[in-house]
Amino acid sequence: MKIEKILKTVVKKNENKILLVVMDGLGGLPDPETGKTELESASKPNLDSYAKAGMCGLSIPILTGITPGSGPAHLSLFGYDPIQHQIGRGVLEACGIGMEIKKQDIAIRGNFATIDKNQIVTDRRAARIPTEENRKIVEILREKIKKIKGIEIIIETVKEHRVAIILRGNNLSPSVSENDPQKEGLPLKKIVPLEEGAKFTADVLNDFLNQAQEILSNIDTKAKTILLRGFSNLPEIEPFETRYLLRAACIASYPMYKGLAKLVGMEVITGLDTIDDQIVALNNLYDRYDFFYLHYKKTDSAGEDGNFKKKIAAIEEFDEKISRIKHLNFDVICITGDHSTPCALKGHSWHPVPLVVVSKNLIPDDVDRLTERACAKGMLGTIPATDIMYILLANALKFEKFGA
After folding, report:
1. Residue-averaged pLDDT of the chain
2. Where are the domains of the chain?
């Protein structure tokens, strides 16, 4: 990006405060019966009031037509080029729960899943087993599988059906395929090397999966295998505070998002399990930071489940919660999503994401609702998500003039 070439010459520090609200998977598609999207169907007076007060638009997380993962989509929101800085989901998941990752380690994101006797995946999330059940299973796996071919296997519970795994040892490579077929009703895939030097790693992982499935077959649980993806090493990335002169706080409950924030150098606030916890933390920490990243997960989870009514309810829940921060004097507020997760598709999509920026230093447009079609008419237009961070900095008066 061109702005990166001059960023250090124009960015400056001041006391103005920025709030970036990310409603995960915010965008959607119309319901066949009503013709309205999830956002258009929800009652959300507080979110709509921000749209009315601010300047609206749509953002493209990566490139037009490209469906993003949560990691690159968030990097874009933080102003980093997601193509230049490709961070594997495994690293994000492991960092998010505080696992130590060494330079040569391979970090992996895992989902407990249900399979039948023919190795067909019948539920990619094992019915979202409770976190406590996950912990009990992980304890058993950890006790029975310590090393494979001299490689240390470190496995930790993340949340519900999710686990994080680290391989530690020599001759490891992240260039292996995943075993996740991505859809139910398809067979598990075998992990294969994507380059010659990765054969050993693939062999270790296939051995691990075989052992894990044998152990899980003797436990009363819907978790019968582990879908592995996001194989990655620890990346090098410029710290957020160095880049923007901002002391930043991450207020999130899900480990992956905390992991990404930690990687870019934000201070991750711990012990936040619910959106109520997050709102309380935002109020309590207002005086301590310049930049706040507030993440809300339920909109994305409902979209992935294909549950239209549940996503509407998640939007309405957040609308009520955000009313509790209106007394805080943020100089710039941005409300958006990292990507769209339409219920109709039961997953992430390439569709542009609604966006509103509120500041006394911009011109409010005529948009009065935070919806896809309304935001498409806003003055921000349709922009790359990487531009959002720079719009927030500009409205917080954190840029000097460039040139004479």
Report:
1. 95
2. 8-84+237-395, 93-232
Residue carrying structure tokens 């920026």 = 357
pLDDT tens-digit map of 69-86? 988 999 999 999 999 888
Query: What are the distances in angstroms from CA 191 to CA 86, 110, 162, 176, 180?
Result: 21, 13, 19, 7, 9
* Distance, CA of 180 to CA of 191 (rounded, Å): 9
Check: CB of residue 118 under 8 Å from CB of residue 143: no
Q: For the domain with range 8-84+237-395, which CATH number is right: 3.40.720.10, 3.65.10.10, 1.10.10.10, 3.40.50.800?
A: 3.40.720.10
Q: pLDDT band for position 2 (50/70/90)?
A: confident
Distances (CA, A) of 250 to 72, 124, 254, 257, 259: 17, 29, 11, 8, 10
Q: pTM (2 decimals)?
A: 0.80
Q: Could you give the CA distance from residue 404 to residue 401 in angstroms, rounded to a whole number?
A: 8
What Cα–Cα distance (Å) separates residue 278 from each residue in 100, 267, 286, 298, 368? Answer: 25, 14, 12, 13, 27
- One-character DSSP codes across 68-109: PPHHHHHHHHTT--TTTS---HHHHHHHHTT----TT-EEEE
- Gap between the Cα atoms of 349 and 338, Å rounded: 11
Q: Which residue(s) pair with 336 in the sheet?
A: 22, 355
Interstrand relation of 147-148 and 151-159 (parallel, antiparallel or unpaired): antiparallel
| Residue 286 per-residue DSSP state | G
CATH architecture label of 93-232: 2-Layer Sandwich (3.30)
Give the bridge partners for 225, in sequence order: 113
Q: Please state whether 346 falls in left (phi above 0), alpha (psi between -120 and 50) or beta.
A: left
CB 77 within 8 A of CB 338: yes
CA dist., res. 29 & res. 303, Å (int):
10
Q: Which residues contact 153 (CB under 8 A, 6 or more apart)?
A: 145, 146, 147, 165, 166, 167, 208
Residues present in the chain in total: 404
